Amino acid sequence: MDIDKIIENAHSGREVTKKDCVDMLYLEDTSEETLKIRAAATNIVRKRNGNAGYIFAQIGVSCMPCEGNCKFCSFGKDHSVVGKIKLSDEDIIRKIRELDYGGKLYGLYLMTMHNYDIEHFLHCVRLIKSNLTGPTQIYSNVGDTSYDDFVRMKESGVDGVYHCWRLGEGKDTRLDPEQRKQTIFNALKAGLKVLDALEPIGPEHTPEEMTEHIFFSKKINSFQCGAMGRVNVPGTIFEGKPKVTELTLSKYEAAMTLTFSSMKRMPIMGIHEPNLLGYLSGANMITAESGVNPRDIIPDTENNRGLSITKCREMLKMAGFTKLVLGNDTVINI
């Protein structure tokens, strides 16, 4: 592998191939080559957007034991410890106002279950739109959905859809990988942006497997992407099992970022769980979380795993970002 050639291609916007991507994912975490791709990835991202970061937030509005039964999710029917929860309108409004950040929030995910009530979801969208003070974009984070329902979402003011063809789909979940992909195509057909990620990454996932997912994200022109390590949620089969370290995850982030560098518009790049190594390896967005969460076992993740808006801003500043991008793509000082 000629790592300098790969980096040169990435800087110039030339194609980084599948073989290049696989080779980068195989690099030793602390090798000189890995340090080079980390540096190149963060340099490219920061140059292209003026060293600006993005703050997103997510509100999980409802959950129940889920038929998808994802082995890595706290809502899976066979191991759910969270139970059935549905936020009241008052709770949702309070959370929106806490997360609004004076209109500086770039995007807000509205998360519910694989099987969900579209009417309740659209009601929640209306609540959000009437309580945000800035140009924040609104994204759905829901289960497999039809084209017609995505059209309704777009008409209600939803800007995009977070939806993934996930690692282990159909094996670690009861969901159909092809249906997951079809949902993404439904959203694109409805005129919605698609946001996704390489997730949930475990030590057993190979560079070849991950590369297929990375190039799928590239194919669909992912608006926001990134790398997310699997959280070994208590009560799931992964509890107590080995997991991907922040060091390894940041290497994956760098390889993804360089692979995306030839895209006409590079995705906004996230790293989850947020960590400084990731922000020195190509990541430029961070997400505050509130409400129910598939990686948590308490009713409101803001009291446990979820970062606050203040902590998100502090982490971006610690990573050296000097500006923030708003939902209408204007840029302000952080």
| Share of helical residues | 25-40%
- Classify the beta-strand content into a percent band: 15-25%
- Rg measurement, Å: 19 Å
Q: Give the number of helices.
A: 11
Element-by-element helix/strand order: HHHEEEHEHEHEHEEHEHEHEHEE
Characterize the biggest β-sheet. Answer: 8 strands, mixed
- Uncertain runs with pLDDT below 50, 5 residues or more? none
Shape: globular
In round numbers, the mean pLDDT is 96
Query: What structural class do helix, strand and pairing data support?
Result: alpha/beta
- End-to-end separation in angstroms reads 39 Å
- DSSP summary, beta strand count: 13
In short:
It is built from eleven helices and 13 strands.
Please describe the structure with a list of short key phrases separated by commas or semicolons.
13 strands, 11 helices, eight-stranded mixed beta sheet, 334 residues, alpha/beta, three-stranded parallel beta sheet, 38% helix
Describe the fold and architecture.
The protein has helices at 3-12, 18-26, 32-48, 89-99, 118-131, 147-156, 177-189, 207-219, 246-260, 276-279, 309-318, and strands at residues 52-60, 62-63, 85-86, 107-111, 137-141, 160-162, 193-195, 198-201, 224-229, 268-272, 285-291, 323-325, 331-333. The chain starts with a helix and ends with a strand. The strands form 3 sheets. Strands 1, 4, 5, 6, 7, 11, 12 and 13 form an 8-stranded mixed beta sheet that branches. A 3-stranded parallel beta sheet has the order 8-9-10. A two-stranded antiparallel ribbon has the order 2-3. Helix 7 (177-189) links the parallel strand 6 (160-162) and strand 7 (193-195). The protein has 11 helices and 13 strands. With 334 residues, the chain is α/β, with parallel strands linked by helices. The model has no long low-confidence stretch (mean pLDDT 96).
